[in-house]
Specification:
alpha/beta; elongated; 290 residues; 3-stranded antiparallel β-sheet
Length: 290
């Protein structure tokens, strides 16, 4: 028979990375943790972990599937407790997104917090790739996510929450400044300044530029320091691709390049965990943003 205790211990082993770490965090002995896992495997009729002496704990293919499904079950149970406690009971909503999106939705978020003083919003900023983010939402590790995508079908069940526009900027003395329209291939021939690789906006810019046949092949520098970036672009040393509403062209002395093939809009989409359909607080936050 599968028990909630077994499921809880299994998910804790996965999250902490080993039987020993789980034992340390839960206050159980390693032998007790191992017994619960063996009983869960017997109840499910599968092997959840690859057991190799002296090596890190690794899930089997069936184990990974079980972890996603069982995590979602625990999340549903937590939702049920919340429903029974009442909609105004103190609670936390874990919201994974990007700093840019938080700023874009700031007014809506502030209105939600004013109307839902019992809810603490915990922002987990700058997540990994969208597929990892979607997996975390589906298994209940986070309650809600807002992310960028060029493909509205990339994450099933997500909902549109607006668009963002990227643009290419140059200095007034840049060789391309006098051109009426510039192709992606022509843009690629000139040096570029790009954001650091750890910056999620960097990958987004690279994807969007590829759509119009452009690439930052000649990189002058990689930096997230906007004053340094703007100064070098202003001097005509390179071009840069950034979100339009983060750049004040007049203040920075920049010019938005007229591209022969415009950069497609970047979709902003929202995904909530499956059981959120019962959670009025998450639904209200989602409604505020959408």
């Amino acid at each position: 028979m599968v028990t909630l205790r077994q499921i809880h211990i299994f998910t804790e082993v996965v999250r902490h990375g080993s039987f020993r770490a789980c034992a340390g965090q839960t206050g159980l002995s390693q032998a007790v943790v191992s017994n619960h896992i063996r009983e869960l495997e017997a109840g499910l009729g599968v092997t959840l972990f690859e057991r190799r002496a002296g090596q890190a704990t690794v899930l089997t293919t069936q184990g990974r599937h079980a972890f996603d499904r069982l995590s979602a079950i625990l999340s549903d149970l937590a939702d049920l407790r919340q429903e029974l406690a009442g909609e105004t009971a103190r609670r936390t909503i874990r919201f994974s997104t990007f700093s840019y999106i938080v700023l874009r939705f700031q007014d809506a978020i502030e209105r939600f917090q004013q109307d839902h003083a019992h809810v603490d919003l915990r922002f987990l900023l700058d997540p990994l790739d969208n597929q990892t983010l979607a997996m975390q939402v589906r298994r209940g590790d986070i309650d809600m996510a807002a992310f960028f995508t060029l493909d509205p079908q990339e994450v099933p069940d997500s909902k549109p929450a607006g668009e963002a526009r990227l643009a290419v900027y140059i200095g007034r003395d840049h060789p391309l400044a006098a051109r009426r329209q510039v192709s992606g291939a022509e843009l690629s021939e000139h040096p570029a300044i790009v954001l650091a690789r750890a910056n999620a906006q960097r990958g987004l810019c690279d994807q969007a530029l590829e759509v119009i046949g452009a690439r930052a092949e000649k990189i002058l520098m990689e930096t997230d320091a906007l004053p340094l970036l703007f100064n070098n672009v202003r001097r005509g040393l390179a071009w840069v691709c950034l979100f339009e509403d983060t750049v004040d062209e007049a203040a920075q002395g920049l010019v938005k390049l007229d591209l022969l093939c415009p950069i497609p809009p970047i979709g902003i989409r929202v995904l909530t965990r499956p059981s959120a359909r019962h959670d009025r607080n998450i639904l209200a936050l989602c409604e505020s943003i959408l």
